[in-house]
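Ticket opened by: R.M.
Priority: normal
Category: complex prediction / small molecule

The reporter submitted a protein together with coproporphyrinogen III and asked that the result be attached to this ticket for the collaborator who will pick it up next week. Submitted input follows.
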Amino acid sequence: MNSRERFLAAARRQPVDRTPAWMMRQAGRSLPEYRELRSGHTFMEMCHRPELAAEATLQPIRRFGMDAAVIFCDILVPAEAMGLAVSIEEGVGPLLDPPVRTAEDVEALRDFDATTATGFLAEALRLVRAELGEERAMLGFCGAPFTLASYMVEGRSSRNYETTKALMLGQPELFDRLVERIVDNSLGYLALQVEAGADAIQIFDSWGGSLDAATWRARMQGPITRMVRATQDLGVPVILYVNGCSHLLEAMVETGADVLSIDWRVDPVEAVRRTEGKVALQGNMDPVALFAPPDAVRREAQRTLAAFEGAPGHIFNLGSGILPKTPLESTTALWDTVLPERG
Ligand code: CP3
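Result attached by the on-call engineer:
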């Protein structure tokens, strides 16, 4: 099996010769060659320039040889295409302007044509495929509506999403309209990525786990299900990632996603039991475990692989993105363990 076949087989709960593996935030962040490439460019400029985005996507594959490449881009790119100014500030994180808080703000958002507004992403995917070849999987992605809405409403990163939840509960029709506009625009954006060669799509609901299960189910499950179905209709599997999802597993299964990406707080054996064979699982090593010495990292990676042995399909990953200051020797030990052809 080549990497692409292995990845797609696991996503579809078919037999594999070994567990396929990639890592969230593998493109950018922790590699010295990324910091080199990034110097002299803003982060959004990196996203907009296909040759830079393609290079950042390929760097981790060249160094480690994961089974899948995830395109270098950001979940905030569609917010920019909808008319907000987006920047990533050192030490602050994302800033979006103007924040979206009133009915006028929601209606002022643009419906964008993906090819015109985000053609740079399609071009980056095509450049990656040309170098990656047909043997490895290439992943596209987008943000889930609650996560994207939280950035659009707060205008920046937030610990508790106070303004977002106040809007969600206090002005439900307005909030649901914002969610609808996000989803409407995400569908064309996802289709663009599939047409440009993405083999699978991951939906990042990074902050959805901050909602109680009843609220997530009532307000977010429907819109996410729409995104899942529309993407599956294009012929590719969908991975649904929710950070802090232990209370949401059953509701996530109901979206019809092919793969649930789970964080390290969920016990893999329990996740297999609760998802009843209906989905493949991705995850779930603690990214902070990579700050331990290489021997400990090897043990943790083995333990993660073993814990998912009963899963109908498993894709190895971390439980959330790799952290910027992760020591390179531990990351190398991880890939030496998980990709046997390296070890
Ligand atoms: O996984 C990958 O490597 C693909 C590329 C990717 C990035 N962001 C690149 C990036 C992906 C999939 C994302 C998703 C994303 N972006 C999420 C979901 C992530 C998760 O783990 O749940 C979120 C919440 C965002 C919004 C965002 N973008 C934040 C909060 C930040 C600042 C983080 C920081 O490290 O300061 C970004 C910037 C960003 N996106 C960077 C990268 C590589 C850091 C860029 C840099 O400064 O060079």
